[in-house]
Amino acid sequence: TNQWFLPAVRGDIPPGCAAHGFVCDGTRILVFGGMVEYGRYSNDLYELQASRWLWKKVKPQAPSNGSPPCPRLGHSFSLYGNKCYLFGGLANESEDSNNNVPRYLNDFYELELQHGSGVVGWSIPVTKGILPSPRESHTAIVYCRKDVGSPKMYIFGGMCGCRLNDLWELDIETMTWSRPETKGTVPLPRSLHTANVIGNKMYVFGGWVPQSAGGEISASDGEWKCTGSFSYLNLDTTEWIGLISDCQEDKSNMLPGPRAGHCAVAVGTRLYIWSGRDGYRKAWNNQVCCKDLWYLDTERPLAPSQVQLIRATTNSFQLKWDEVPTVEGYLLQLHADSPVPPVAGIPGTGVPETSVLSSQGGCSLHQSPQSLPSVPYPEMKVDHPSQTNNIIPNNVQVSLSSNLKAEGKEKVAAPENKVAQEAMKNHADATGFKESNAPSLLPVCTSSAQTSANVGELHDLDKQTVNPDASVSSTVSSSQTMVTQQAVKTESSSTNGAVVKDETSLTTFNSKSEAAETAYVMPSARVNTGQTNDSHSSRAPQRPLAPVKARDRRWYDVGIFKNNSAVVSQFYLLPEETLNINSKTEGADVPDYRLLKKQDLFPGTVYRFRVAAINGCGVGPFSKISEFKTCIPGFPGAPSTVKITKSVDCIHLSWEPPASPSGNILEYSAYLAIRSTQLQENPSQLVFMRIYCGLKTSCIVTAAQLSNAHVDYTSRPAIVFRISAKNERGYGPATQVRWLQGKVTATHS
């Protein structure tokens, strides 16, 4: 929402302080030291439980081999595991706060934390190697390679009478200090900058730097200024890469301005930069306090979860997928089993190369709507939030390997940006972006009352309800039945036309990976209307079909969506020349949808879906493929409003009849996913056993049946049920319910 709020905190509220140490451990925050007033520093430690906004002053045990940390400011305070690492800072040697006698520190402490809340105490680790020189206003980060190596803390820059730009490394396992050799251009000496780790890179932004570009200035009263320079250090190769140089001009204010004393935080692969002050040494009274918020997209977003089916009709699907943090939208595509003829005569007009949806990777920097405007630089993309309905930003891309994007309030850009601005504005209008919570796509079609598949996720509570008709998704709290949009996990659950077999038969379903889709097509189940009251089961046979030709494996755009849900009744047909390109590359530009014809979905047809997230760096990888089938006219819809009531030795499962029975309901069948050797061989293929068949809209699931249940770990641990209805034509699609188990003791099959 980009909305600030002031929480009502309580408890041992600390006094205001500057240049303190600050770490975030889950939902708690630890604050150490800082300057309470001029010349008076602190060595108090406070803990904030952000889930309750409760402050608590904590008193760690003193180290067994020395004194606790003295009052200080400008120190570093870094978290790794259950320990915080304190290094350096500035102390006041004088007992009189008005007579400040600065002393730079290079002492090193370790603070052990208790789980959840509280601390154990300070310790002074015995280190090897040469300690870094005393300093304050430096940065310290901790990085550990995923594949090999021990965690390492890196200290960069700071102040000790003059600005520093040296890099130090501490191996936390061996407690050994060293000076790593680096490649590339080292950033200017600086203090009061920020350093953050995203992936294997340490991003360094801003700070106070010498006024002259000649390097360090030894005099303590030397001139210095704030900088907006931006670099990163590849922590695997120890190579510095410059993104924004200190001398780079920014006449259009399309990048964060020079600043020091700001704060920066990494959320996923996005870096947020807030506030700070700008000025230079001889103009203290003219310093400017910044109140702008920026973010930097450092890489393309991760692949979303598989597309999940909420409900289907004869000609539409209601779909959702898990949210990907810090993204601007989602590209949804489908693939039909039956080839769709290409459209001739439609020009293959695409988005210009500068589009955010291009296949080029890189970084992208944005400014939030409250902040200042911005300008293109080499390796950068520029974004303007003034077009609020445009999720695909207007941008400029200049050469070089990395793309940096800045977003501002003014439509100020280089001349070459005008074409891209207009093209992207038209493209955004065609895709139909909206800022509302409603799914935004072209077209948006409302599904009818008939439902074909509903999937809900239930927590392990005494009474729980899923009402697929009331919401796209549903979950239940511990105290009441409720419907939300946040907690749904759904899967392919269409069992339309399932074959009726004997009581002991099992039902198997499969969810194929994207790699498998090139050679296999899931056949639809057939309908057997000659049997009525026998047990019901369906099997999706996994038989290989003839490989499909490349030009038949075409992915069609459904649209670009602001939110993680969509109602799909149409898709866009691409011109044949575009199809030939898209069959070879996934990263092709998104076309102008206004120039494309639309195709309606057909009844009784299997469609495959995949989705990719979009941020300032472009379109990320696609999700695994999901397959859903539109309903066949005349079959009943899926049951709705599933409830689970837990007893001591069983659970009570109930539901409501389909909204569109399409005739008289002859019976219902309920199924339970069970453990089996077949499931062990192919974990993605669930095996179901029928546990109920009859006219009642409820059944009892015994403890004996539950003891054989398979616990599905595709997302959170859950036991899976499916319920379907049968009319004169046969069984319709099933409603699937995932019953969340919390801390599961059942066997992981």
TrEMBL record:
<keyword id="KW-0597">Phosphoprotein</keyword>
<feature type="compositionally biased region" description="Polar residues">
    <location>
        <begin position="487"/>
        <end position="497"/>
    </location>
</feature>
<feature type="region of interest" description="Disordered">
    <location>
        <begin position="465"/>
        <end position="497"/>
    </location>
</feature>
<feature type="domain" description="Fibronectin type-III">
    <location>
        <begin position="540"/>
        <end position="633"/>
    </location>
</feature>
<dbReference type="InterPro" id="IPR015915">
    <property type="entry name" value="Kelch-typ_b-propeller"/>
</dbReference>
<dbReference type="InterPro" id="IPR013783">
    <property type="entry name" value="Ig-like_fold"/>
</dbReference>
<dbReference type="Pfam" id="PF13854">
    <property type="entry name" value="Kelch_HCF"/>
</dbReference>
<dbReference type="InterPro" id="IPR059124">
    <property type="entry name" value="Kelch_HCF"/>
</dbReference>
<feature type="compositionally biased region" description="Low complexity">
    <location>
        <begin position="471"/>
        <end position="486"/>
    </location>
</feature>
<dbReference type="GO" id="GO:0006338">
    <property type="term" value="P:chromatin remodeling"/>
</dbReference>
<dbReference type="GO" id="GO:0035097">
    <property type="term" value="C:histone methyltransferase complex"/>
</dbReference>
<dbReference type="GO" id="GO:0003713">
    <property type="term" value="F:transcription coactivator activity"/>
</dbReference>
<feature type="region of interest" description="Disordered">
    <location>
        <begin position="527"/>
        <end position="548"/>
    </location>
</feature>
<keyword id="KW-0539">Nucleus</keyword>
<protein>
    <submittedName>
        <fullName>HCFC2 factor</fullName>
    </submittedName>
</protein>
<keyword id="KW-0677">Repeat</keyword>
<feature type="compositionally biased region" description="Polar residues">
    <location>
        <begin position="527"/>
        <end position="540"/>
    </location>
</feature>
<dbReference type="InterPro" id="IPR003961">
    <property type="entry name" value="FN3_dom"/>
</dbReference>
<dbReference type="InterPro" id="IPR036116">
    <property type="entry name" value="FN3_sf"/>
</dbReference>
<dbReference type="InterPro" id="IPR043536">
    <property type="entry name" value="HCF1/2"/>
</dbReference>
<keyword id="KW-0880">Kelch repeat</keyword>
